[in-house]
Amino acid sequence: MKWIIKTFDKLDTKELYVILQLRAEVFVVEQDCPYQDVDNKDMDSYHVMGFDSEHLAAYTRIVKPGISYSEMAIGRVVVSPKNRGERLGVQVMKQSIAFVEGELGHQAIRLSAQSHLQKFYSDLGFQFTGKEYLEDGIPHVEMLRD
């Protein structure tokens, strides 16, 4: 697995295309959830990409403080359907957390997790904040890693 982390302005057009393609494949088509994925946060984010050869297998977006939350945020966590079962979700989250802690200085990270993934994120050090809500018709919980 080849891991690449870039700011929006450093992404090339092919990287941006495969990111948007994977996000649409999973979040819009697979989860049957029509929503505006391109939300003006990508330009203020770091993009964590895990490539299996030339194929984008895993991805997250690290959003700078003050955009989604007052803290850093990790979102759009996605693994390609072709790569499920390979524990890439854990790997891409560990890459993202390590980047925040190592490159940006240790700081709190907040995320909005689909409720059924609460244990997954808890195992990575995130704690439920007590806030549960519907986002695009899907139950979510807010979680914080301090």
Main structural class = alpha+beta
- Beta-strand content estimate: 35-45%
What's the gyration radius in Å? 14 Å
**End-to-end span in angstroms?**
28 Å
Describe the structure.
The protein has 146 residues and is α+β, with helices and mostly antiparallel strands. The protein is built from 3 helices and 7 strands, in the order βαβββαβαββ. It has helices at residues 13-30, 88-103, 118-122, and strands spanning 2-7, 45-52, 55-63, 72-79, 109-114, 127-135, 138-145. Strands 1-2-3-4-5-7-6 form a 7-stranded mixed sheet, with helices on both faces. α2 links the parallel β4 and β5. 28% of the residues are buried. The model has no long low-confidence stretch (mean pLDDT 92).
Summarize the SSE layout with pairings:
Blueprint: E1 2-7, H1 13-30, E2 45-52, E3 55-63, E4 72-79, H2 88-103, E5 109-114, H3 118-122, E6 127-135, E7 138-145
Parallel strand pairs: 4-5
Antiparallel strand pairs: 1-2, 2-3, 3-4, 5-7, 6-7
In short:
This protein has 146 residues and is α+β, with helices and mostly antiparallel strands. The chain has a single domain (2-145), classed as Aminopeptidase. It contains 3 helices and 7 strands, in the order βαβββαβαββ.
What structural keywords apply?
3 helices; 146 residues; 27% helix; alpha+beta; Aminopeptidase; seven-stranded mixed β-sheet
